[in-house]
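Lab notebook: predicted structure, single chain.

Context: the supervisor wants predicted structures on file for every construct in the current expression panel, including those that have not yet been purified. This is the next one on the list. No modifications to the sequence; it matches the entry in the shared construct table.
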Amino acid sequence: MSTKSGQVQVGRVDWWEEHGDEVKVRDLKTGVVREGDRIARHVEFQLRLYGLLAVEARPGKRVRLFVDHEGTEELPWGDAEEAETRAQVAAIRRDLPSGQVVDPTAVAQVGEACRWCDVRHHCVRYRTEAPRLWTTTDLGFVPPQDIAGDITEAVLQKDPTTVRLRDLGGRHVTIAALQALHGDFWLLPPTTQLWFFGLEPRGSTKDPDGRYRHPTNFRELAMGPGERPAWRLRVLRGL
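Prediction complete. Output recorded below exactly as produced.
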């Protein structure tokens, strides 16, 4: 449950099935749900919250959790997972007490969860710390495919789909295959600061030692076979 513009947003279970002493809860996903070799933590937490709901609604019954995407995967759920989830919920309630206004910079934590956050472009703490993520090779997680910096050269009118920046980490970055709906980048003067949230990388995101390396080449639209567009790209100027 969250608030947005004063409205209360309520989550709803996609599929609830009961047979005898067993409850099966399913969540149907159309987007990316895996992080490496495991279900992404935010998806896991969502299913675990449904698990708590099932435990409260049907005490004494066995609860099983499934996520359906390209296939069907069952998530572990037992006493240990229930206890861990209750502790997570208790921590959230401590940080976000009911009926109080909380300074978001005091509770925001920059890390793995930022990749799945739909409002990180509003997060002052994320925008402040993101450049450190772009130049660190031993993070232990993959940050969002975002970048920001100053335009280093006027983009030629004959190629309005490409922008070149000196990013906030001091690197030279190229962003290609941009759609015209974002505006006429070639009209912007050098030193104009731009933020891109939700790009797709071009090429490898690993260094020679196999560690994550934030790209210096990005794109929006697909440029080759098997590539997917950056469906949720946001472009903002001068944050």
